[in-house]
Amino acid sequence: MVTSKPQEKLFGVRVETIRSLLRVIIFISIAGAAISSRLFSVIRYESIIHEFDPWFNFRATKYLVTHSFYDFLNWFDDRTWYPLGRVTGGTLYPGLMVTSGVIWHILREKLALPVDIRNICVMLAPAFSGLTAIATYFLTKEMKDSNAGLLAAIFMGIAPGYISRSVAGSYDNEAISITLLMATFYFWIKAMKLGSIYFATLTALFYFYMVSAWGGYVFITNIIPLHVFVLLIMGRYSHRLYTAYSTWYALGTLASMQIPFVGFLPIRSNDHMAALGVFGLLQLFSFGFYVKSKVTGKQFRNFLVFSSIFVSFLGVSALFALTALGWIAPWTGRFYSLWDTNYAKIHIPIIASVSEHQPTAWPAFFFDTNMLIWLFPAGVYLCFQELRDEHVFIIIYSVLGSYFAGVMVRLMLTLTPIICVSAAIALSKMFDVYMNLVDVLKSNGEDNSEETGSGKKSKAKRPSTNDKLFSIVSKLAVLLSFAFYLVYFVLHCTWVTSNAYSSPSVVLASRGPDGSSSIIDDYREAYYWLRMNTPEDAKVMAWWDYGYQIGGMADRTTLVDNNTWNNTHIATVGKAMCSSEEVAYDILKKHDVDYVLVIFGGLLGYSGDDLNKFLWMVRISEGIWPEEVHERDFFSDKGLYKVDGEASKTMKDSLMYKMSYYRFTDLFGGRDGIDRVRNQAIPLSQSPKLNVLDEAFTTQNWLVRIYKVKDLDNVGRDLHSATKFDESANDMKRKRIIKKPALDLRE
Amino acid sequence: MLKIRSILLALVCLASIVSAGLTSAELNSLVHANGDKVLQLTDDIFEPILQGRREHSIVVLLSSSSPQINCVLCREFEPEFHIVGNSWIKDHPNGFEDSDEEEKKQNIYFVHAELANSKRFYTELQINSIPKVLFFPPSEAKSPNAWKKEISEYQFYAGDHKRLLISWLQQETGHTFNIYIPVNYSKIAVNAVITFIGALVVKRFSTQVCALLTSRLLWSGLSIVTILLFTSGYMFNQIRGVPYVLEQEGGNVQYFAPGQQNQFAVETQVISFIYGILSVLFVVLIKKLPEIKYSSVRLFTVILTSTLIFIIFSILLIIFGGKGLGYPYRFLSS
Amino acid sequence: MIGQRSFIFSILLAIVYILGIASAESRQLDKFQVLVKYDAELYNPGQASSGTPETTNLIKELQQRGYELSYESYESENTTLFLEGEPKYDHLVLLPSSSRTSGSQKTFNQRELLKFINTNGNILVVGDSDSFLPDAVRLLLNEIGIFPSPKGYKYVDHFNTKKGVPQITNSNIVNKHVLPELPSKGISYKGSSALLSNNKLAFPIIKGTSTSFTTNKFEDTVTEDSIWSYGEQGFLAVGFQALNNARLVWLGSGSLVNNEILDWVFQAKKVLKLQFVQHYHNDRPQFINPKTYRIKDNIFYTVGISEYVNGRLAPYKVDNDKEKLQIEFTMLDPYQRINLKPLGSGSSKGDNTLDTYIYYANFTIPDRHGIFTLDLDYKLNGLGYISDKRVVNVRHLANDEYKRSWEIPNSWFYVASASLVVVGWFFFIVNFLYISNTNIAKKTV
């Protein structure tokens, strides 16, 4: 600390005031940096909603602001999951939409600023990232001091691991949830330290906001009890802990049950049982302490042994019994896949198919946090050195967060804040030590008792000029090197944000051979075509990845979408895609499908297309119809995934294959077509023929292909023979002999 | 054991010249010569086992556990196959004996052909991909190479391999199969002993154990090591079962997998080591070095540590840059 | 009384639904345009007596009906059925031919004929055992599943003959909608027969007797190869109605031509029209055809159906149990399948002419939310098709539509215990703070 006394003055102004002023300025610049580094995509492309899930959130928000909150809450959505529909109001986390809805209303009615709801949605995530930085500041301040807090805030502001989910346009639940996560944790630490009902209530309030915004609230539901549990084991029970936790748990649980989607889960799902268990344990502890204060030590020991055995036996058997009776839901599939990493692979292909659920390789960690990743263990070590109650929290969060992030790429997001906090603690400690120039600046004659921190050595002997020089040089060396690293860190973050996380994925950018960049806008071209050229109630079938986008951009009814709640329905779509035309046509007709949409990257070289996801469609439908769909049938004889001449018959007959390569060879002027994604040749001779679909639209780069499902034949033929009849136009040769047809008996 | 086996084999081969094909009884003796009831196929015995007339059927697993091939499915499937094979022999130790009146019941023998041991067998069958499970039904052996044609192949589907394999075998043979998962007594015993000794140690050295359990050093070490492992992709290795390193043709060893989404197991070790060293150096820099009394020594060590951090960080960047992506930043050019 | 009310509403708010018969109706005042394709060797339209008596009879019938007849020979090179993509004729009569080829293959072939059907044109094909059907016609018939025997094959029946000629009687009639009965008790039949595929849209009108067969060898032993059809699998007259209600009739001989069949094929009878479809919530009949229902609502569903009789619309009343109208309430699978009940005659235009018959169904929506279809699908061979789909949403209960806790007796126990806890807690606090805490109070004092 430069100053130790509050009344010190600089230029006639109290140092404390200057400090607050500086802090505010720093905050404003941090928020500015955080927001502006998230604007790459808006500047480069336009103010557009990104990716997949945000399109649903955007659509829901539009519904909210055009209808009432009551309508929103009871929204039955007939535009998705045709013909099942979706009870959308009861199956979403409304926090995000309500937040932007409230902002929209305030801007409109209180400030008379009629901002387009889209712009609010686009800018919500960057705006909240500024708040996250502030929440992180307060959390870190509780751990060490405000210096560490400021460092953590700036790290949080620009760490790519968080930016990846909060660039402008990434209008997803995570956009506001991380803010709420940090705020909840801050208030929890505060409540736990002070034993304050006020702060515990605030914790519960933010917890409620978090529950309303993101399914990841379960992380809080488990980590706070774990924190308490570890503290209990460490023998750090206190009434402060009791007050904080009991208040939070009671209020938070009641509040969280007000969200329709959560409902009775907090008392019925195993995911939430840890919190309940710790709540019970705390009551026992406090009862134990009460007893202890009343009886002798010996009696208390006996009491402790018997009651603990009895209680634990009771608890465990009750848990088992309730689960067996079905009163408590077993762990959800996604939760299983976190612990038993093979579970998803075997049981739930739909979870395994999502690329966000894949494990994380080490480059992703470094990519997302750069040098913080190796400052992180150092920070944890420093926490161990002090090990106050709140440091235990950091340690638990670090270990659990690392595990989760290692198992699922997506959870990088929850790890990033704690990395920032830990690294900031470590780095600020370094600055404490090496920026302390007191001993250097102080003249020789002064009393060395004033010196603190690193000045211990000077107690032994008075610092000579040489010592001072050495000291300055060593400090400068360290400071300069770390200043260099920090500059590099900023460069890295900017580079990563600009290159990896700023693509809307709805609009693609490509670079020509001459280095010129061009924009590939096929998705919007196709969706706009659907919007303008199809009847308003047309049903569009596509793989579930595109459900939200079709709903949001084309405004057409979809069969399945990214809210993968009904595995069977998704499998039905998968089956239609991987079956032969005849089987598929029955499915299409049964579901009143008018248009089928596929993504085909073969011409452009876009690897995220449907043929590359095709095996997942096969696997998911195999899960439901193991008799009819076999993954093995889609591989060539050599067991390879082939689309060229060696492709298996099932593969060539599948609707997906036919839709992808229909008329593809036409582009190559009589030669075999080349698929640029799979680098395989599509032989001219096996160019697929379509009987049950008509090509309706293909975008400029063939990225999206839309097919219209043919009507039933007017004269009652199957569509295969109808096509044959139409094609026979070209050969007018006649059979001279009329042969008796081979017919079944007429019923 | 090996000797007995080879003698038996020699006998068997001799017999094979006469009858061109092992009889069920001969196979039985072969099977029981070993603890594992699944026969290991080698290049010298596949012909006597498979060629010629036979009244029993044979199920062959073709797989490889060699790290070069890195066949994940093989590793997954092999133990399951052995369990099914052993369970069958356990139910029918001597096959269906002649006294059994049910004539139609044919014996089944389970054979495992490891690629390394039976290269000739693989070339004879022109196998291009593994794993495969082949079923050789009873044969009249009209021609010497008849066994190569009378094959039906198991299709690998997702699910519980044991159950799928059994349902396939039931289709092929009409028998019913039971599964006995062998109880590993030695493991249980070892566990029991360890637990016992553990309990004993805890009882005897309760104060020390207590000290250990409450030791800050131990817990901090544990936590930091776990964090280091997880943040350097340990779970990736566990889930994906990636190879340790990639040995290319020509003896070159590749240590770092290209691409950001991929890695080899050795990378976890290298990277966690680098992170660990960097962290340790950093802690030393802020905790230990300021306590050195002599300023010259302090200067020297501080400079040394900083330089080390710089160099190791540079190495990290070089490794990271080598993963592709066109990452532009390096401190030192490699 | 609900039924009564709906009846009134249906009359007031009837919506006219124009189905496939629209085009035929709109030109009702004009003369129907009919093209007769003939073979110059067999018939000359200039000379009334040049053809067979059956042909002459047919032409006379057509003229009597007031159709505007055009004649074109099969050899004609400039036959076109369409003008600017619109059909030039309403009906087409195809007489037998002496040759298998026809003149203008570009404009008169099986695809043009199919297109004619697809644009609501009706076709009457008259066959004959001694002449050909032009390839275009034959291929068209084959495409819709009718396979007439080639030239030379004759319908033979040694058991039911009169003067050596096979006889057919009313018992040979399969479809009474098209042909209620033969003009005379039995008619002598000299002609060909056809095989029929299992196309649901094609149906026999007259079948062969069980002892009949069709062959081209009359002297030698009959072999498998020389027989086209056996017994009741040989059909002498076949009708066909496409999904757009266009009709086609193939007759094995000109002798089968009669008024009933002509009426049918030229859309003069058995043409149905869906006048209106209405559905509403039982309690809210003022909101017709709402988009959304709630689970377990009661739906009242009515339709009005007219039949075209003697040039005007008349109520269509089902008197046959097998032909009842059904409504399905479907989401992937039918959740309800209900016979519509007759309500009585009504008017579709709001005046007093009773031109439509009203049917209704009243049912409860299942306890399942989703997007349901009210599917009326009435397709009987010989009758005009009626098909109507109404998509409605069935939503779940809103958050304030459940019973409140105090309305459920089971919950009283829990409500009581919860309030007891609250009260108890309050007294505990009071006790803790002010009553039992005297010691501390003393100390602080």
Q: What's this, in brief?
A:
The complex is a heterotrimer of chains A (747), B (334) and C (445). By secondary structure, chain A is mainly alpha-helical. Chain A has 33 helices and 11 strands.
- Second rung of CATH, namely the architecture of the largest domain in chain C: 3-Layer(aba) Sandwich
Q: Briefly, what CATH class of the largest domain in chain C? A: Alpha Beta
Strand content of chain C: 25-35%
The count of β-strands of chain C is 27
Please report the two chains with the greatest interface, counting residues with C-beta closer than 8 angstroms to the partner's C-beta. A-B, 68 and 64 residues
Number-wise, the strands of chain A total: 11
The amount of helix of chain A comes to 55-70%
Q: What would the principal axes of the Cα set say about the shape of chain C?
A: elongated
- Order of strands, widest sheet of chain C: 2-1-5-6-17-16-13
Domain OST48 N-terminal (chain C): 55-267
Organism (chain C): Pichia sorbitophila (strain ATCC MYA-4447 / BCRC 22081 / CBS 7064 / NBRC 10061 / NRRL Y-12695) (Hybrid yeast)
Main location (chain C): endoplasmic reticulum
Subcellular location (chain C): Endoplasmic reticulum membrane; Membrane
